[in-house]
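Async update (no meeting this week)

Hi team, since we skipped the sync, here's where things stand on the single-chain job. The sequence we agreed to prioritize is pasted below, unchanged from the tracker. I ran it this morning and attached the output directly underneath so nobody has to dig for it. Comments welcome in thread, and please keep replies under the output.
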Amino acid sequence: MKKTSIVIASIIIVIVAIITAIIIYNLNNKGEANINIVKVADEEILDDCTDEYEEIQKDFLQANSNEEKISPNCFMTLKVIYKKCGHQTSKYIKVPEELVNKTKDDLQEKYSDWNIQSFSDTEVVLTKEEDGECGEHYLVQDKEGNAVIYQILEDGTKKEYEKTDISTEYLSDSDKRQLEEGIKVNGLQELNQLIEDFE
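Output:
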């Protein structure tokens, strides 16, 4: 009886050992398969996302660069210098929306016919030269007892620009004499100052 018990016990131990070996072998093979699946999956993810990641990283680096960019609160000054008369006009505008967050190079590309005189995040000054006159040459003269503003055209002729309500009878004798001859002024700012002085 002891012999049969020992044989049965030995057979059971061999069967358990074989089953255990099979289970361990299968687990090892499944683990390697899982690792291979994970590796393949990682490679596929990298392949799909690499371009996106590099683009995001490029944008991030550009956003964090120290290069100065135009802010939404920036003002632009556009200066035009006229060769024929030598005068300069200036126009002040709020920066166009499409220029916000643009660099100096971007601005030069957009305004290629202008020179960048100064550039900061809050103020941009652009200049350019043009042939001809500025078109802001005026003559203020007495006409029938009132001060009248004439615009002097490029050919030297004058064209009535505006009749004012300024009566010459209340002005000083020297102002009256000047208005009889005509007072030449250049630019709207100078013209407005002269009219204010007479009022």
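Quick observations from my side:
Helices lie at 2-63, 104-110, 173-181, 188-198.
The CA atoms of residues 150 and 160 lie 4 Å apart.
Reply here if anything looks off.
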